[in-house]
Amino acid sequence: MKKSLSHGFTLIELLVVIAIIGILSGIVMTSLGMAKNKSKDAAVQSGLGSLRAQAEIYFSDNDTYVGIFSVSSPCDSANSGVKMILDKLNIDASNNTVCNISDGSAYAVSARLSNDAGVAVTYWCVDSAGQSQVQANPVSGEACQ
Predict the structure, then answer these.
(1) Nearest 5°: phi and psi at 44?
(2) Neighbours of 116 (CB within 10 A)
């Protein structure tokens, strides 16, 4: 009688497969991290766009931004919609949201964007003049720089 020998995988074959799976999973994890940062940036830009729209509606009704932004503490808002947006931005932008308002006729708001490794920190800024742009520093006046 002939016995059939069943061969399994060798240790080398198993190690090669494990190494290939490790390399592929590392590539996927890197790509997912970059996608996560891009989605956070998109959320910040969208939130600031919504904030600007609400501020402009308020201004068209009241001829001032005071009330939607506080002069003494600009990132505090009595308006529930704007407060919700600012609270979300402070979470998504790691508490790096900066708001400025002058005498009620102009405002600017900036929030920190995600920082990929090796990339300088940037901020997304919107203002009452209609500007939306990336800038190197948080807003310091009533207009994006």
Answers:
(1) -65, -45
(2) 12
Residue (of 102, 91, 105, 83) closest to 43 by Cα position = 91
User: Of 5-9, 36-40, 73-77, 121-125, which range is least confident?
Assistant: 5-9
- 49: left (phi > 0), else alpha (psi -120 to 50), else beta? alpha
pTM of the model: 0.74
Give the whole-angstrom CA distance, residue 137 versus residue 143: 12
Q: For 8-20, b where at least 16 C-beta lie within 10 A, e where not — what string?
A: eeeeeeeeeeeee
Distance CA 138, CA 57 (A): 25
The answer to whether 58 touches 67, Cβ cutoff 8 Å, is yes
Pairwise CA distance, residues 63 & 26, whole Å: 54
Q: State the pLDDT at residue 6.
A: 66
- Within the chain, strands assigned E span 97-101, 107-112, 123-127, 132-135
**Residue 46 — very low, low, confident or very high, per pLDDT cuts 50/70/90?**
very high
Tokens 């002069």, residue?
Answer: 71
Q: What would the pLDDT profile of 30-42 be if each residue is shown by its tens digit? A: 888 788 888 888 8
